[in-house]
Amino acid sequence: MTLEREKYQALLDERVFAPHALSEALVSRSRRSIAGDDGNLLILAADHTARGKISLGKDKVAMADRYTLLDRLVRCLALPQVDGVLASADILEELAWLGALDNKLAIGTMNRGGIIGATWELDDRVTAYDVDHIESLGLDGGKTLIRIDHQDPAVARTLETVAAITTELADRRLMSLIEPLPYLKDANGGAILDTDPDALIKVVAIASGLGSSSAYSWLKLPTSDRMDEVAAATTLPILMLGGEPKGASGDIFDQWSTAMKEPNIRGLTAGRTLLYPSDGDSESAAARAGAIVHPHHS
């Protein structure tokens, strides 16, 4: 299933002549349960553009073209092993209008204010969905980002915000998908991911305790060569992220496959690795990930 250019043009026209149709399509879509048949999830992550992440490698605008992004999402969402998508309002509304979200999970991204490369990058404020609209628009949950740098005072506000969001989502029995990441500053003051597994284990412990209820909390985490210890730091269900595509991407698929042996690792929320693989074949990448997440279904 591909996105025809005529359909894409109709979407552009709809934004002008019938803009209400986009949100109405999101509200009226057919829904499913979070857990599905096996409790495992493969969610496509497409919220990177809302934080200004449009580059891949040396290409500064590799992921900027909206038609290309939507076409790849539509084709991958048509695969039965793909459970849904995580995105900002613009993308979720477009996918719903295109009919790609029926019986798929729709997770709304929330705090996208930490723009890539900005001096305030770790000040991850809510600039996308809020809890009220996640509920009223019929979404299945909300995703938040917490990048913990012990030297950046903006992190304290983010922790407070995510804790409040987690409580509000739990009150509504909606998924709170939390992405806790340990961060450092480089020599130029730029924000960089801390790849130390001990640091990842620590932020997992912190994220697990946020809010007045953890009943509907899930974690979105990078992979580690000590994933058994990372997973053992919480009872919350974990979805692994993909990060920047590298080479043939074989290593990350092997890491995912090994990590899925941990009892509370329940799948993937991966974006660039699946949507923009090095060979350009997003459907094959998503199908390969689907075979890892849903081996019996595949």
Descriptive notes:
With 298 residues, the protein is of the alpha/beta class. The protein has a single domain, classed as Aldolase class I (TIM Barrel, Alpha-Beta Barrel), CATH 3.20.20.70. The protein is built from eleven helices and nine strands. It has an eight-stranded parallel barrel, surrounded by five helices. Helix 3 (66-77) links the parallel strand 1 and strand 2. Helix 2 (20-28) packs across helix 4 (89-97). The mean pLDDT is 95.
Radius of gyration: 18 Å
CATH fold call: TIM Barrel
Q: What is the CATH homology-level superfamily?
A: Aldolase class I
Number of strands: 9
| First-residue to last-residue Cα separation | 19 Å
Low-confidence stretches: none
> What order do the strands of the largest sheet run in, or round the barrel if closed?
1-2-3-4-5-7-8-9
- CATH architectural name: Alpha-Beta Barrel
- Give the overall form: globular
User: Largest sheet at a glance?
Assistant: 8 strands, parallel, barrel
Brief synopsis:
The protein has 298 residues and is α/β, with parallel strands linked by helices. 37% of the residues lie in helices and 17% in strands. The protein has an 8-stranded parallel barrel, surrounded by 5 helices.
Q: Topology of this protein?
A:
Elements: H1 5-17, H2 20-28, E1 41-46, H3 66-77, E2 84-87, H4 89-97, E3 105-109, H5 131-136, E4 141-148, H6 154-171, E5 175-185, E6 191-193, H7 197-208, E7 217-221, H8 227-232, E8 238-240, H9 250-259, E9 265-270, H10 272-275, H11 282-293
Helix pairs in contact: 2-4
